[in-house]
Amino acid sequence: MSYENITSEFSNGITTITINRPKKLNALNKATIQELHDAFDEANNDADTKVIIVTGSGEKAFVAGADISEFADFNVEEGGNLAAKGQALLFDFVEHLSTPVIAAVNGFALGGGLELAMACHFRVASTNARMGLPETSLGVIPGYGGTQRLPQLVGKGRAMEMVMTAGMIDANQALHYGLVNHVVEQEELIEFCEKIASKIMRNSSVAIAEAIRAINANYEDGVNGFNVEIKAFGNCFGTEDFKEGTTAFLEKRKADFPGG
Predict the structure, then answer these.
(1) Which residues contact 254 (CB under 8 A, 6 or more apart)?
(2) What is the band of 203 on the pLDDT scale with cuts at 50, 70, 90?
(3) Of 35, 95, 135, 194, which residue is the catalytic one?
(4) Which CATH architecture does the domain made up of 6-201 adopt?
(5) Cα(11)–Cα(24) distance, integer angstroms
C-alpha cells in the first residue's frame, strides 16, 4: 500500500511506520490519521510482522501535535465528533493491537503526538525529545485520550500539572516520570528499539497478544482485569506455541514458536 504522509517498511520481523511530514513537524491531520490507521492495520494483519515501531521523520519531531488549521473553526458538535472519530480510528485502535507497538520518540511529541506515543505499548525517547500536552494554551483540552492515558502513566498530580501548565518536559524528566522506558542518543534510537524488538520476537506472539489484552483490561472501566487474565491464561493452553514452549523448556532447547 502506498501512502502520501507516512512510510511503512518491513525488515526482519519489524514493520517501521514513519510519519513523514517534516515541513509540518509531522503534525497529524485527518489524512495522516487515516493513513496511520491503515498502516497499523496492515502490519497487525501481517503474520510476518512481530513488532511495530512508529517514529517521525527527521530529527526535530516525532509528532509536534495536530494540524490546528483543520479544526480552528469547529463548533461543539464538530469538536466532539473529531475526538470520537480520532480515538476510535487511531489511538484506541493502536492501544488494542495484538502486535506490540513501540514508539520511538525523536524530538517534539506534543499534543496529538504525545497522545499517539502514549497509545503505543511503550516508549523509547531520544535525548532531544520534548513532550507535553499544550492544548489548554489554545483554549481546549487533549481530545485523543491524553487526559486518560497520561495519569495512568505518570500519576494524577503530575498529569494535572502537565495539562494545566501546558508545558513541556525533557526526555530525562519523562524517564523519571515513567512516561518513557528508556532514553538514548538520537542516532541510536531506532537501533535500540530494534534490539528490544528482537528480544520480543524470541517469545510467543500468541502469548504476547493475550498479555496485551490482559494488561489493557486493568485500565478499562467496568472490566475485571483478573478475570480477563484468567481467561487469557487458559487460552494459552490451547495453542501450539504453549506446546512448543513447554516442550522446548523440558527438552532444554530454544523454543521455535509457530505463532499459533
Answers:
(1) 248
(2) very high
(3) 135
(4) Alpha-Beta Complex (3.90)
(5) 28
Give pLDDT tens digits for 34-69.
Answer: 999 999 999 999 999 999 999 999 989 999 998 888
The yes-or-no answer on residue 161 being catalytic is no
Q: Among 193, 17, 199, 209, which residue's Cα sits nearest to residue 100?
A: 209
Residue 66 is predicted with a pLDDT of 87
Contact between 97 and 40 under an 8 Å Cβ cutoff? The reply is: yes
Long-range own/partner contacts, residues 212-217 (CB < 8 A, 24 or more apart): 212/96, 212/97, 212/98, 212/100, 212/121, 213/96, 213/98, 216/95, 216/96
Q: Is the pTM of this model over 0.85?
A: yes
Q: Look up 244 and say whether it is catalytic.
A: no
Q: 35, 95, 115, 194: which one is catalytic?
A: 115
108-110: strand order across its sheet? 61-63, 108-110, 130-132, 168-170
233-238: long-range contacts, CB 8 A cutoff, minimum separation 24: 235/210, 236/204, 236/206, 236/207, 236/210
Mean pLDDT of 249-255: 97
pLDDT, average across residues 84-106: 98
List the domain boundaries for the chain. Answer: 6-201, 205-250
% of the chain with per-residue pLDDT over 70:
100
Helix axes 146-154 and 156-165, enclosed angle (nearest 10): 130
